[in-house]
Write the structure tokens for this entry.
Amino acid sequence: MMRNIFFLSLVTSFINQVGAETLSFSSGESQNSLIELYTSEGCSSCPPADEFLGQFTNSNELWTKYIPLAFHVDYWDYLGWKDVFASAEFSNRQRKHKLQGNLSSVYTPGFVVNGKEWAGFFKAWRSLPETDKTPGELTVSIDRHQVNIQFPSAQSKLNYNLAIVGIGLTTGVKAGENAGRKLPHDFVVLNHQNTTGQASVNLDLPLIVRHQPEQFALVAWITDPSTLSPIQAVGGYLPAGTIKTL
């Protein structure tokens, strides 16, 4: 009973705070680069890739050119450490990239940039691929607990994705290949949902997530329903108190 009262109190507090103002994010007309990292706390070669993604927290092109996402997979959990951020959904997403020809194989750390495998991380000169596409503006507006995503350029139905990501997370790993290490994480996908629509869709902002990062951000992107390759992406930091944690 007390747990239910606590939950309702968090929800009420959330609605009161978010209802105070409407938040909005815009991608601009040019295509932003959606950077997907498939990673695991159970993989000894993943921490350098996590650190590479984390550098975007200091980039003035974050959200205006680069949209980073870290999907933690669960297929290395058997090595002795269960990744606290891992999800079978994210492992399946990576396998879908492989089935669609976007990846040569399923591995970690694995990068997909704008729907294509990027092996540049493993080279001395880590230059991300450029894009010169201008698909149009993708906008996100948050009013209370509802998220409206609009893509006026849509000519047919699209798949709309919404992710809540955490920046400034740390895990003390006690077993497996990274035993004894403290691993920093940024842009970790903590909640992901999607729906199909044409020029506009509405999704509910998740009221509560399990983990407490230093900062939350929101990322939205659109794809054709037949592929995971993004058409456009947008993101931005969320004000303190927008998302609650248990």
Q: What stands out?
A: Residues 206 and 243 are 7 Å apart (CA to CA). Residues 2-18 form the longest helix (17 residues). Residues 1-20 have pLDDT under 50 and may be disordered.
